[in-house]
Amino acid sequence: MKTLYKGYAGIFLAGITCFAIFSGCGKKPEIKARASRTIVFFGDSITYGYGVDREKESFYARISKIMESGLYGDIKTINAGASGDDTSEALKRVKTDVSAHNPDIVVIAFGLNDCQNNSMTPQKFRKNILAMIATMPAKTRVVIATSNTFLEGGRSLWKNLNDSFEKYMKELRSLAGDNGYPIIHVNTAWENHIRQDERHKESLYTDPTHPSAKGHRLIYETYMDVLRKIIME
């Protein structure tokens, strides 16, 4: 009888152990606790949020809101976008607007103004971005982002700009690949969306350059696909 009792007791204890090990199954994975982090978004008028309600509708505002919710831990976001900036102008302010914040992650997004600057070339554009990165702390994770294309209308101007713009986006893709930087393919996502719904492409813009609230939503989703993976590492 004692032997039988010991057998039941062993089964019971084994059951308790298994329950303790597997009771967590089915629960959502929790993010590991870690020190607070800072993400700086460094770019032009698209990053700034020109043309929409930048506190509610811009891609940055949407990202900032979800980061501030604590869903991904203690993360602070900083908008270092400036309307009209090309990489030469941005290079003048990178130390004060980016490096001074000692960021953990920096998203760099330029090109729309660079391709309209007659004194700029894709090679100089690349050199400027590398110079920006050189000012950043060693711990900073650099992320490169491409941008939306110009809205092509009845004039050939916008088609010509997009042809020039693509050379700059190609330079960004090359730079990211050569240096192992994650890249946010906004340009690809944007073009794919337009191909799928050509008739309503105007709804993505407020003018031939700047995204509408709908356009910013697409940018937000594209950014988060990449940032989510980096943050969860």
Overall description:
With 233 residues, this protein is of the alpha/beta class. 49% of the residues lie in helices and 11% in strands. It has helices at 2-22, 45-48, 59-68, 87-97, 122-134, 156-179, 186-196, 213-232; strands at 37-43, 75-81, 105-109, 141-145, 183-184. The chain has a five-stranded parallel sheet with strand order 2-1-3-4-5, sandwiched between helices. It is globular, with a radius of gyration of 24 Å.
Strands side by side in the biggest sheet: 2-1-3-4-5
Rg, please? 24 Å
- Low-pLDDT ranges: 1-29
CATH topology category name = Rossmann fold
State the CATH superfamily name. SGNH hydrolase
Measured distance between first and last alpha carbons: 55 Å
Broad structural category: alpha/beta
Question: What CATH first level would be assigned?
Answer: Alpha Beta
Q: Report mean pLDDT, rounded to a whole number.
A: 88
Number of domains: 1
Largest sheet: 5 strands, parallel
β-sheet strand percentage? 5-15%
Number of helices: 8
In helices, the fraction of residues equals: 40-55%
Number of strands: 5
**What is the architecture at the second tier of CATH?**
3-Layer(aba) Sandwich
